[in-house]
Amino acid sequence: MPLSEERLVSRLRARDKAAFNEVVLLYQQKVMNLVYRLLGNREEAQEIAQEVFVTVFKSIETFRGESKFSTWLFRIAANHCKNRIKYLSRRNFHRASQIDDEVDRLSGDTSDGPAMFLQARIERPDKVYEGMQMQAALRRALEELDEEHRTLVVLRDLENLSYEEICDITKLPEGTVKSRLHRARMALKDRIDKYTK
Length: 197
Hints:
By secondary structure, the protein is mostly helical. It has a domain at 1-96: Orthogonal Bundle (Rna Polymerase Sigma Factor, Chain: A), CATH 1.10.1740.10. 79% of the residues lie in helices and 0% in strands. Mean pLDDT is 81; it is low at 95-120.
């Protein structure tokens, strides 16, 4: 564990609120991205992301330093998502599709959103539209994957975590992660093909 990370963890253990704020600033976007991709619902993701940071603050003593702090944090986030998915499925909650909201946001409904960035980079509107359609297909396909497959695809392909980090988060052996990830990618490809044909 890097020295700066060690200091941050020891400050957290001492219940230093400034250290907690640093952790939130450093990791809030990554945690939010992860939980949103796993849950597929922005409101649920915001709630769970907050719970993740509260859990980190309350249970920092359980962090043993055997992995990176961020890996431990992502494990907490993934576990919170797993529990939330089980809770929601028992109550027949259907994840609200955020795709239309995202398309509206990307199409220019906000002045400070990615649409401005996209327009600055891509001059052809048809290419922007194709990209948005592909993004929508990917989101739909991800939502259809079972929870374990979705978690592996998100951690490896969207969050770019190493196999070692994924093993630490999921508590699965590397061979199992690789074989399940392969199956998850094949299932994802089949679903994307369904939406893009």
